[in-house]
Each structure stands twice: as structure tokens, then as C-alpha cells.
């Protein structure tokens, strides 16, 4: 097993706990407790990303000085030129790196994240850059927007942490306008949550 994959699996186990240790008699009845399990998972995921928010901010600050930022800006300008409207939703924004780049590319950006700490850092970054982004704390599985609101939905390195991925995708599709675009750049990182 690759070292990076092992670290990612270890991180996932911290987020959701080691489900292999559940006694068989309890596991047989787990379907009755799924809502509690998911609530617990969401709390763990939120706490994990709140704890990581300051280091994540540092990593994103450093990224602004790298050539990758110019490449991302060119990418989003290309997407913008191929998108009918300019309303975009970023799901799992973290510290707002991509939300800010999409704003520079000409999109009107709404960005959500489960972690209140990440959103606070994201707001600070946008203020420092003098960019306007509508940041909100929100669960990707329950998006509080009307149907057909956004022309473009973007997410990167977020879906691997979602307890109910199918529900998350249904929500992203629901808020996307007919003919809109969804771009998800992610990986399974060795194991589905």
C-alpha cells in the first residue's frame, strides 16, 4: 500500500471511526441507527476540518504565489466563456482558494463549507483580495438553495468525505440550472466513506 493512501485511510478512520469494531449483533441492526451514525459522522468531519483550517489557510496562501493559480484562472476563464450564466456554487470551499479564482474569472460565486472555521478564513482571504464571494456554512447533502439556481457547480477534494454521496450529488444536480455544468475534481483516496 502506498504511504499516501495509508495516510488518507487513517484520516478517514479518524473522521468516521473504525466501523470494523462494531459487534455483529449491533451491525445487524445498524439500519435503524443510520441517522444517528450520519449525524455523528458530520460532527466528526466538521471538527476535523475546523482543526485543520489554520494549516489549510497557510497552504492556500502559499498557493497564490505558485504558477498553478494562473493555470486555474485560465481554466475557469475557459469554463466561464462556455457557460451561459455566471452564477456558480462551490461546494466544499475550505479557505476560498477556488472561490476567489472563479470570482477573478468573472463568476458571481456562492461558496459553502461544513466547517465554520474554514468559512471564517475564506471570508478573510476574500476581504484581503478585495473580492466579493457569498460564503455560507452548509452541509453538501442539504443545500439551502432553490432548485435551478446555479449555472455552474464546482467541487474539489470534497466528495470523498461525504457520508451519503448519492444525496450530495442529487443536491448539486437539483440546484443546477438545466444545461448547467457540474465539475467535480476528486478521488476515492483508497476507500469510500
Give the SSE map.
Layout: H1 3-16, H2 24-27, H3 34-63, H4 67-81, E1 87-91, H5 97-104, E2 108-113, H6 116-129, E3 134-137, E4 150-156, H7 165-175, E5 176-185
Parallel strand pairs: 1-2, 1-4, 2-3, 4-5
Helix pairs in contact: 3-6, 4-5
Order of helices and strands: HHHHEHEHEEHE
**Poorly predicted residue ranges:** 1-36
CATH homologous superfamily label: Vaccinia Virus protein VP39
Residue fraction in strands: 15-25%
CATH topology: Rossmann fold
Question: What is the number of domains?
Answer: 1
Q: What structural class should be given to the helix and strand makeup?
A: alpha/beta
CATH architecture: 3-Layer(aba) Sandwich
Radius of gyration: 18 Å
What global shape is seen? globular
Assembly state here?
A: single chain
CATH top level class name = Alpha Beta
Q: Could you describe the largest sheet, including whether it forms a barrel?
A: 5 strands, parallel
Overall residue-averaged pLDDT value? 77
Strands side by side in the biggest sheet: 3-2-1-4-5
Question: How many helix segments?
Answer: 7
The percentage helix is 40-55%
Q: How many distinct beta strands?
A: 5
Span between termini = 18 Å
Amino acid at each position: 500500500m502506498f504511504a499516501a493512501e495509508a495516510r488518507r485511510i487513517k484520516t478517514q478512520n479518524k473522521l468516521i471511526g473504525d466501523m470494523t469494531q462494531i459487534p455483529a449483533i449491533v451491525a445487524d441492526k445498524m439500519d435503524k441507527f443510520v441517522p444517528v451514525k450520519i449525524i455523528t459522522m458530520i460532527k466528526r468531519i466538521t471538527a476535523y476540518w475546523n482543526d485543520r483550517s489554520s494549516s489549510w489557510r497557510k497552504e492556500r496562501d502559499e498557493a497564490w504565489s505558485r504558477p498553478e493559480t494562473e493555470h486555474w484562472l485560465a481554466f475557469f476563464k475557459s469554463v466561464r466563456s462556455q457557460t451561459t450564466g455566471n452564477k456558480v456554487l462551490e461546494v466544499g470551499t475550505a479557505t476560498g482558494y477556488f472561490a476567489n479564482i472563479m470570482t477573478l474569472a468573472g463568476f458571481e460565486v456562492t461558496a459553502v463549507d461544513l466547517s465554520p472555521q474554514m468559512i471564517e478564513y475564506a471570508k478573510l482571504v476574500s476581504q484581503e483580495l478585495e473580492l466579493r464571494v457569498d460564503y455560507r456554512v452548509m452541509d453538501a447533502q442539504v443545500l439551502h438553495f432553490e432548485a435551478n439556481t446555479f449555472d455552474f457547480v464546482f467541487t474539489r477534494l470534497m466528495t470523498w468525505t461525504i457520508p451519503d454521496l448519492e444525496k450530495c450529488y442529487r443536491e448539486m444536480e437539483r440546484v443546477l440550472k438545466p444545461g448547467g455544468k457540474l465539475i467535480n475534481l476528486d478521488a476515492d483516496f483508497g476507500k469510500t466513506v
